Amino acid sequence: MFSKEIYISRRQKLSFLMSSCAPEGARGIALFLGNVDAPAQYKNNAYKFRQDSSWLYYFGLDEPRFAAIMDLDSGAETIFADDFDIDDIIWTGPMPSVASLAALSGVEQTAPYAALAAAVEAAKSAGRRVHFLPQARYYNERLIERMGLCEPSLDLIRAVVQMRLVKGPEEIELLDAVCDLGIRMHEIGRDAIAPGVVEQDIVGQMEGYSLAKGWGVSFATILTQHGEIFHNHSHAGKIQEGKLLVIDAGVESNEHYASDFTRTYPTGGRFTQKQRDIYSIVYECNEAAFSMIRPGMAYREVHLMTARKMLESLKALGLVKGDVDEMVAAGVAGLFMPHGLGHNMGLDVHDMEELGENYVGYDDDQKRSPQLGLGSLRMARRLRPGNVITDEPGIYFIPALIEKWKSEGTNAQFVNFSKLESYYDFGGIRLEDDVLVTPDGARRLGSRRLPIAPDDVEAAMAK
């Protein structure tokens, strides 16, 4: 948790941003809901607790069943939570009072959790606006419904997105630290690769490290020899020599900041020529994208320029044909990279995704493309210093998708379908770094970089 002055300052800025939504005296209240424990099989066997990220950003308290109301007109702030009674203390031991915890956030006024609904009803009865954010958790969704609230506040969403998109120095310090943890976790995974090893054994070593050094993983680990399946969470296979192993994994720090790296490894330690040809294209796209990241550059344009570079190289291999600019315009790159170049990252690995991708990742004058690949771009905005994004190009050979395009004649004038048949058992390659936009360009987060150039990957595996 940061100093209380940081949370006070954040809430003051939020109140200022919300002041443009309505005239003074008619702004209403902002309702923030922390998460509660979520039962796994039954009430007293709950999933590991994870606090709501926007609650953490504005209040910092990492305890379940907390909520708050900010009065945007009077400036009053109240935290709603319950002190532990003796029945709780028997199981948990002595706990800090709600008032003492609220003070850590710079909030002086507290009330029981049960008083929250009445406070909201009082605001509604007075004709005041009640601003709240979309909720990811079922309990909070139901709570919102029971309080008779309907639509999340677009004004509050936009204000929160504007603030959380730009990381402060205290956040950047934590992001550098958690990226170092993520890098070490990847090294553990890379060093465990050997023919015959069960994938789950590697995942277990990696995730064990994430729990030893942080909160755990920032998302479900992807470790697969079928890189063409993006979210393959099955780890039952054994490492087979001659395959490519995609490892997409991250650590969440104890302060709940995320890292997210991807590397692709030759399971036998050395790339075949065919693997090296494709790997080198993805590596060069990763480097090229990073070189374009700077303030004022729209990440949508970085995606498109990366797609162009990818298609130029695939054309040199004879997998596509024709004018490269026409291929980019037609969306041919989506056949090989059906996802976007990257996403925002911070307190969430896909930062603020529950608030709506189009609000988080797109400027007001941008619209999401209908094209495969470009349409999945989560971050298209013009970049600003303090943005934290991922740079993760990939090339995948997805037989079902290739066959679909072939049978429908999609972009047939550009795609060499007959030559692609020899890649049906290839899999996929993705290479991902975490990047901070700086005032004069960009830098990769973490104190060092995982080996990524093909020769460096082989050298690291040889050790």
Summarize the structure.
With 463 residues, this protein is an alpha+beta fold. Helices cover 39% and strands 14% of the residues. It has helices spanning 4-18, 53-58, 86-92, 98-104, 116-125, 138-146, 154-164, 169-191, 199-213, 273-292, 299-316, 324-330, 333-336, 357-361, 399-408, 417-420, 454-462; strands at residues 29-33, 39-42, 45-46, 67-71, 77-80, 109-111, 130-132, 216-217, 222-224, 244-249, 251-252, 261-266, 388-391, 394-396, 428-430, 433-438, 441-444.
Overview of this protein structure:
Helices cover 39% and strands 14% of the residues. The chain is an alpha+beta fold. The protein is built from 17 helices and 17 strands. The chain has helices at 4-18, 53-58, 86-92, 98-104, 116-125, 138-146, 154-164, 169-191, 199-213, 273-292, 299-316, 324-330, 333-336, 357-361, 399-408, 417-420, 454-462, and strands at 29-33, 39-42, 45-46, 67-71, 77-80, 109-111, 130-132, 216-217, 222-224, 244-249, 251-252, 261-266, 388-391, 394-396, 428-430, 433-438, 441-444. The longest helix is centred in the middle third of the chain and has 23 residues, at 169-191.
How would you describe this structure in keywords?
463 residues, alpha+beta, Creatine Amidinohydrolase, Chain A, domain 1, 3-stranded antiparallel β-sheet, 17 strands
